[in-house]
């Protein structure tokens, strides 16, 4: 396998990782920001207040996005398998 082919595989893997994990990370960031803003406005400084809503919203988003995430990972595996079959 040549250097540019390795870079293409790595680039494809990074883009797949960002497509799969990026939306959930952005959602977690936004939920945490909203709850932190709410805590700052109400002066309610409970550390566990952030955890439960964030986990529930991320679980719902994960269930909603699971087909998209599976398709993205399956597509990446298909591209890798095609490279293996082609010999590089």
TrEMBL record:
Signal peptide: none
InterPro entries documented for this protein: Bac_export_3 (IPR002191), FliQ (IPR006305)
Record GO cellular component, one term: plasma membrane
Annotated compartments: Cell membrane; Bacterial flagellum basal body
Annotated membrane topology: Multi-pass membrane protein
Family classification: Belongs to the FliQ/MopD/SpaQ family.
PANTHER family in the cross-refs: FLAGELLAR BIOSYNTHETIC PROTEIN FLIQ
Name of the protein: Flagellar biosynthetic protein FliQ
Organism: Salinarimonas soli
Gene (name only): fliQ
